[in-house]
Specification:
By secondary structure, the chain is an all-alpha fold. The chain is built from one helix and no strands. The longest helix is centred in the first third of the chain and has 16 residues, at about 5-20. It starts with 6 loop residues before the first helix and ends in a 27-residue tail after the last helix.
Length: about 50
C-alpha cells in the first residue's frame, strides 16, 4: 500500500484488507489492478453486475 497517493482511497483499501483478513481471504493489489468509478458502461439491470 505504499503507492496509493489519495488518502481516502488508501483508507478504503486498508479497511478492505482488514475485512478480507478477518474473513481469511488475502486481498492482493498489483500494478495492473484497476479501480473504476463504479458506473456501468452499459445499461445496468439488477442481478447483471
Amino acid at each position: 500500500m505504499d503507492a496509493v497517493g489519495e488518502p481516502v482511497l488508501a483508507a478504503l483499501l486498508l479497511g478492505k484488507a482488514a475485512q478480507a483478513n478477518e474473513r481469511g481471504v488475502e486481498l492482493v493489489l498489483t500494478e495492473d489492478s484497476r479501480i473504476d468509478d463504479g458506473r456501468c458502461r452499459r445499461p445496468c439491470r439488477p442481478g447483471t453486475w
